[in-house]
Specification:
Rossmann fold; seven-stranded mixed beta sheet; alpha/beta; SAM-dependent_MTases_sf; about 230 residues
Length: about 230
């Protein structure tokens, strides 16, 4: 079984005193993550640059102390790297598949970080009731932007942001889906470059602010943030 190489030097800057936990996470991805089908075998040698750091640098778009919900979390991307890079965040991972939830529970226990794992789908009413009012919703390789916005924006408080980690075609996707995003209550999608000088190439993140309710009405009045439920 492949064992991940030492992290790039920049990882110590990104993760600080949580670098040992980030290294354990990288080992999990490259070993049990491959065996249990969370990432492909060809990805094992690229977990730092392609997965962990690529996700962690999106932290520069997230305000201090934010309540973050990661939808379709899969192997914990981007939620776990963000939780490791930013101990100030309150992170919830939502994942529908039981085998992935079991793996995530094992990893979170081993890393000893205060991250909640929920089995479910972001579009389910129960998930919305439980985790609505988030400051940030994140997603990576979950769905096209139009569909993702319909699932993610209802989880956000007014003024909260959806951060979708995307690939090189992000600009084309934004042009194609911008009108649907607005109908779902989002603002104009913005393509952001994160981690300039840290990862090469920088990560591409599409940012969408929740500005209105789903029916496209006037912006909602901000509500008092709920305490995170365990």
């Amino acid at each position: 079984m492949f064992h991940v190489k030492h992290p790039p030097a920049v990882a110590s800057e990104v993760f600080g005193d949580r670098l040992p936990a980030a290294r354990r996470y990288a080992e999990h991805l490259a070993t049990s993550g491959v065996v249990r089908g969370l990432i492909g075998p060809r990805e094992a040698g690229r977990v730092w640059d392609r997965h962990i750091l690529n996700c962690a640098v999106a932290a520069e778009l997230i305000p201090h102390g934010a309540r973050l919900v990661d939808v379709g979390s899969g192997a914990g991307l981007p939620g776990i790297p963000l939780a490791l890079a930013r101990p100030d965040l309150q992170v919830v991972l939502i994942e529908p598949l039981a085998r992935r939830v079991d793996w995530l529970d094992e990893i979170i226990a081993d890393l000893d970080i205060p991250v909640v794992v929920e089995r479910g789908r972001a579009e389910e009413a129960a998930m919305r009731r439980r985790w609505e009012g988030a400051d940030v919703v994140t997603a990576r390789a979950v769905a096209p932007l139009a569909r993702l916005a319909g699932w993610a924006l209802p989880l956000l408080r007014p003024g909260g942001t959806l951060l979708a980690v995307k690939g090189a075609s992000a600009a084309e996707e934004v042009v194609r889906d911008a009108a649907t995003v607005r109908k779902s209550g989002g603002g104009e999608p913005q393509v952001m470059r994160c981690g300039v000088g840290v990862v090469d190439p920088p990560s591409t993140v599409v940012l969408v602010e929740r500005v209105a309710n789903r029916r496209g009405g006037r912006p909602e009045r901000p509500r008092r943030r709920r305490e995170q439920r365990s």
